[in-house]
Structure formats: structure tokens, C-alpha cells
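Quick sanity check, Indolepyruvate ferredoxin oxidoreductase:
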Amino acid sequence: MNDVKPIRIFMTGVGGQGTLTATTLLARTVLAAGLPVTSGEIHGMAQRGGVVESTVLIGCKSPKIGHGEADILMGFEPMETVRALPYLKRGGLVLSSTEFMPPLSVAMGKQQCPTLDEIKARVADCTDRAYFMACQTIGIEVGAVQSGNIALLGALCATGALPFGPEALEATIRANLPAKIQAVNLKALELGIKALNA
């Protein structure tokens, strides 16, 4: 157990997207692989539209992630990806949705929303290891918009950055999700892997 390379994963999104479900599924996948894991919600309430931040730490002694410590940043909403960039280690891995769910301040015109190109440029300043995909579109395509998060998780598992592949996440989905939503999420997983390799 002591030779597990520590991996710090910072996940961020907007309430109502299923960020915490994605966090729980990833943590359970790590556990099923026999690896030490700590996970938690560190900020925000999972109310619709609120910012949600959570962590999954594999083989780490400390239960939290400070600025510049995350090996992997998963942004389920592009503005939240940019907001969480300070946590990313230089040259770390970023996986982000390309589709906006603007916070209330933007929706009310009190704040400007950066363009996707601006967001990609900000990410590129921190790392050249970044993948972007249309998570909500994938979710809608499979039948549940929240399943877009599973697509992003599937893509992460397919990058080779974790000590297991997508088949481990597939087994967790089969073991933990209700039968009626398994098929939708398994299809999202498959499309996420395809989007990564597209």
C-alpha cells in the first residue's frame, strides 16, 4: 500500500449537474481497486446553480488539496474550470466540459462570461495536458443531462492517468447505480472514451 503514487483530483461544477455523484463513483472505483482513498465536498451546497467543489485523493496523507497541488482538475462547467485553475499543479491534467451553465451573476448581467477560447487559453497557460468535451450534449444524447459527468469520468479513466482504466468505472456503475439508470450511464461512459480519442 505504501508504494501508491499519490494522486490529487480536484472536481468542480455547478449544483444540479451531478458533481457529487461523480465524486462518489470515482472514490468507490478507487476503493474497489484496493487503493487508499479520501474524498469529500469542500465547498458549496449542491443546490441548483451553486458552485460545488469536491476532492478525490488516492494514496495521500493529507485530506485536502491546496493551491498548486492538484494532479488532475475536472471541470464539469468551463467557468468553474478556470476558477479552480489555482489548485492545479503546473503541467497537471485538465478535463473540462465545453458547455456553460452560467452562475446567477452572469445570467443577471452583473458579470461577464469568458469565451471558451479564452478559457482554453487560460488553461494552456498552466498545462499542455488538457481535454475538452461537450458533456451536457453527451448527457442529453444518452437520455440524462447529468450523465455528461460520467462521460468526463470515463475520459479521465481512459487517459491512463489513474491506476485503473474505464472498465473499473464500468464495474462501479453496475455495482452502485440503480438498474434503471445504469444503461444511460454506461452509454455516457462509452461516449466519453470516444470523445477523448476523437
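Posting the structure with no commentary besides this: The first strand starts at residue 7 and ends at 14.
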